[in-house]
Amino acid sequence: MPQIERKFKELVMKLHARTQQGEIPWETTAGPDTFQVAFPDYSVSLSLDEDGWKVTYVLSIRNDQGNIIEVIRSDMEGEISDEYGLQKAMKELYEQARRQALGVEKAIDDLLGHLGAP
Description:
- There is one protein chain.
- By secondary structure, this protein is of the alpha+beta class.
- It has one domain.
- The chain has helices spanning 3-20, 86-102, 104-115, and strands at 27-28, 34-38, 42-51, 54-63, 68-73.
- α1 (3-20) runs parallel beside α2.
- It is globular and about 55 Å long.
């Protein structure tokens, strides 16, 4: 696998792991299916690209001027493809980022509190 593809996969996997641990503060954006996190010199956004029945997860890296400098897609061809778990990792990362940014866990806890103990 080429060096850059290894780095793409490493970036996705680290974002996935750190998000799972609650260490990445994903936020909503103006787009309904896009979530982002800011780092000191870059930001990362994660969105859905739906084409009929096919869903692709798109991770975009922006520099501090807001320019997209790289895009990683879950349907990328070559060695980075699903053979290496990229599709699954990006799907899980998207779901985790969405739940965190929208406060899904708090909403469920509030609803359970209103419904009371069984």
